[in-house]
Design brief:
Layout lengths: L1 H6 L8 E5 L2 E5 L2 H18 L2 H18 L31 H11 L1
Antiparallel strand pairs: 1-2
Length: 110
Amino acid sequence: ANFLLEYAVDNESSLCRIIAGTKAQLDGTLEDYAYLIKGLISLYRANHDAAMLEAAMMLAGRVDDLFGDPALPGYFSTAHDPLMLLRLKSHEDSTLPCPNAVMIENLLAL
């Protein structure tokens, strides 16, 4: 968790999807944020490290900014991009739980 918080989260509290060496590349998706926040909450519950809870709350706020839909409940899978014609919302589970469902659990835990 500390490695990700140090190298994958930039100064604007944005999460990057890929780290090559110590250089972050590609913006994170809702899935990246949701699962990292879930992990941080789990770490906080296990060892009561307040830094993990603070990081989870900071990233959850960033999720609202980047992926929130002002018109309808739920989150888009990707951040707003003026070049993107369509932003999708996933509400179905696959081999992993849906990121929207994971975020609901995260928000309830926070």
